[in-house]
Amino acid sequence: MNSNQYSNQIYKCPVCGNTDPRYLGVRGGSFYCRKCITFIGGEETGDIAYPKSAYYKLDYDLTEDQMRLSEKLIDNYKNNKNTLVHAVCGSGKTEIVLKVIKYAIECGETVGFAIPRRDVAIELYNRFKDIFKRNKVICLYGGHTEDTKGDLVVLTTHQLYRYDKYFDLLIVDEIDAFPFNGNQVLEAFFRRSIRRNYIMMSATPTDNALSFHKENGGEIEELFSRYHMHPLPVPRLIVRKGVFIHIELIDVLRKFLKKTKPVFIFVPTIDMCESLYSFLKLFFKRGLCLHSKVGDRQNKLQEFKEGKYRYIVTTAILERGVTFPDLQVIIFKADHTLYNSHALIQIAGRVGRKKEHPDGEVIFLANESNEEIENAIAEIKRANKSLQNMSKIF
């Protein structure tokens, strides 16, 4: 019997929820799903956890806004309410959830922190391991799945398939990021792995996420202030046609490097990343090209932080989860179709994250303006206006 003979029957994959017969097959008289077949095996069940002590101490104090939201997350969790946190880049989302993580562990409940990208998951794991020194913090990502149980499970969203109704508290950060955003399989893994409540976090929540959250009766909490209480740098748009966009790039980069400012130059594709770096290194030394196909990225980023390199030409691989002091950002061909307003806002959020250097420049270098560019700039200005209004109140 083949899958066509089953085409009139309604079958829903129990793992990813797929019902499309184009992605269903039959083996031994039973259905299997081609969308998630690579994610079969190694699953954990929702075992009963036991209360444990959880202790952490930060070397700095939270702001009033962070403390307010931190307490609100605990209240929502105690009352079985899901929460979507809409917080600007650099607001300290990780610090905001520490208290609710501690509370859940002490109640003997299972806690997960999921993130779409492997590099960011590893960085967060190292942070959490240092914060919760007395607890077992584990990390799961492709090729690193030996240990699947801990007091706090940090993992990529791909690894959520292992956990069926497992997490009492599941925190998912960067819900708008590739490859999670718009991926029906990964979104299904997320829904399936929740036993009780979730906290979703994003600087730029998508309509899809807002719709899902609304259906689940959750609350939306906003945080428009960075921990140092300075406004977000507003991008400056420079429009240049043809070859003049490269001439402008050289001019802008020269001015930054002359001031000894570290610079990220974002481009939309890997091919463009390679070609633009080959062009720029004719004019500027001590540069670096980083994208998803380049190995040993963490060591190269550390060398950049130490001053070995002055600028990096990169793709969306460094769009999130990285913080460098006094960083300046140029988005080359910001009007490219691969850049939506969410991506532009995230990239702009790399600037001004440190309290020692809360300001900086973000340059949108484009052949022409478009709706995505205008929406990104407008949203950043709106967040700054909200921060200004809150400052007047408090």
Annotate the secondary structure layout.
Blueprint: E1 24-27, E2 30-33, H1 64-78, E3 83-87, H2 93-106, E4 111-115, H3 118-131, E5 137-140, E6 152-156, E7 167-173, H4 184-193, E8 194-202, H5 207-215, E9 219-223, E10 236-239, H6 244-258, E11 263-266, H7 270-280, E12 287-290, H8 297-305, E13 311-314, E14 328-332, H9 341-348, E15 362-366, H10 371-393
Parallel strand pairs: 3-8, 3-9, 4-6, 4-7, 5-6, 7-8, 10-15, 11-13, 11-14, 12-13, 14-15
Antiparallel strand pairs: 1-2
Helix pairs in contact: 1-2, 9-10
Mean pLDDT, rounded to whole units?
90
Beta-strand share of residues: 15-25%
Q: How would you characterize the largest beta sheet?
A: 7 strands, parallel
Return Rg in Å. Answer: 22 Å
Global shape: globular
Q: Largest beta sheet: what is the strand line-up?
A: 5-6-4-7-8-3-9
Quaternary organization: single chain
Order of helices and strands: EEHEHEHEEEHEHEEHEHEHEEHEH
Properties at a glance:
32% helix, 394 residues, globular, 15 strands
Structural summary, described in words:
There is one protein chain. The chain has helices at residues 64-78, 93-106, 118-131, 184-193, 207-215, 244-258, 270-280, 297-305, 341-348, 371-393; strands at 24-27, 30-33, 83-87, 111-115, 137-140, 152-156, 167-173, 194-202, 219-223, 236-239, 263-266, 287-290, 311-314, 328-332, 362-366. The protein is an alpha/beta fold and 394 residues long. The longest helix has 23 residues, at 371-393. The relative contact order is 0.12. α1 packs parallel to α2. A 7-stranded parallel beta sheet has the order 5-6-4-7-8-3-9, sandwiched between helices. A 6-stranded parallel beta sheet has the order 10-15-14-11-13-12, sandwiched between helices. It has a two-stranded antiparallel sheet with strand order 1-2.
